[in-house]
Design goal:
The protein is α+β, with helices and mostly antiparallel strands. The chain is built from five helices and seven strands. The protein has a seven-stranded mixed β-sheet with strand order 1-4-5-6-7-2-3.
Length: 190
């Protein structure tokens, strides 16, 4: 009986020792992956500013939205790659495009919610000619109403801020076909 007791005691002790060692190893591995030489976490105020800008856009308050934009803002639509996508340059051009879209597309309302933000500060030169600095990587649901019919669309954006904390670049990623079908018009087709 005593040999069986000692054997079970040793097996149980080894079991708990091995479980504890593995847990510490996983925690150490996690700690070593927290840092990244390409970026750091940016202050939450950039996520707040980004969401406020989207909320103003969704409410069609384009003049108030314009106050949050740099004069040189760039807005890239999701209709191509980094070189071929449709891009609007300048605050006035961007605001006027959105005002015209509301007037001509059949859109009645937009409601953006379920925001998820990842504000980062890029500290190493990114590929593709994009600037270093503060980005808010954000995805959310946009419920658009065209001709009385609501459609839900998940949207992904990269929002870049300049040194004055103004938005100077939007890169958008979403399925444009949902909007084209609902509105009956491809506004980016030339």
């Amino acid at each position: 009986m005593k040999p069986l007791f000692y054997f079970l005691f040793i097996v149980i002790s080894l079991f708990f020792t091995s479980c504890t060692t593995g847990t510490h190893q996983k925690e150490n591995d996690l700690d070593s992956t927290v840092t990244n030489p390409l970026f750091t976490i940016a202050p939450i105020q950039y996520a707040d500013s980004s969401e406020k800008a989207f909320t103003l856009m969704a409410a069609f308050k384009f003049d108030s939205w314009a106050d949050m934009l740099a004069d040189t803002v760039v807005y890239s639509f999701p209709d191509g790659d980094a070189v071929t996508r449709t891009t609007l340059h300048g605050k006035d051009t961007l605001v006027n495009w959105w005002k015209n879209w509301v007037a001509t597309s059949g859109i009645q309302s937009m409601a953006m919610d379920a925001f998820n933000h990842v504000p980062i500060q890029v500290i190493s030169q990114p590929e593709g000619g994009f600037p270093m600095g503060i980005y808010d990587l954000v995805y959310f649901t946009n419920t658009l109403v065209f001709h009385g019919k609501p459609i839900g669309l998940r949207m992904n954006f990269s929002v870049h801020f300049n040194a004055d904390k103004k938005i100077d670049h939007y890169a958008s990623y979403y399925d444009r076909n949902v909007i084209i079908q609902a509105s009956g018009n491809n506004v980016l087709k030339k």
